[in-house]
Amino acid sequence: MDLSFITSYFVPVVMAGCLVTGYVVKKWIKDVDNKYIPTIVFIEGAILNCIVMNNITVETVVGGAICGLASTGLHQAFTRLIENKEN
Predict the structure, then answer these.
(1) What percent of the chain has pLDDT over 90?
(2) Backbone angles phi, psi at 9, to 5 degrees
(3) pTM for the structure as a whole
């Protein structure tokens, strides 16, 4: 598997899209449990990366799914950074 997609321009676009979706689901849709958010952004990342790359291969699906999960980790890191500054 070629991981050179990480240096691509599209990775931040897919990650930002997943980050926004995860934030919206967490803050504004109260019926969704937080444990489902990584699964939602995982699937969204896979689909969004296929759309952005205009190609459906195993690499684009897996790369998008990784970007979706990375957006969850990015949100957690940012949240903890902000919470530590407030305390």
Answers:
(1) 36
(2) -65, -30
(3) 0.79
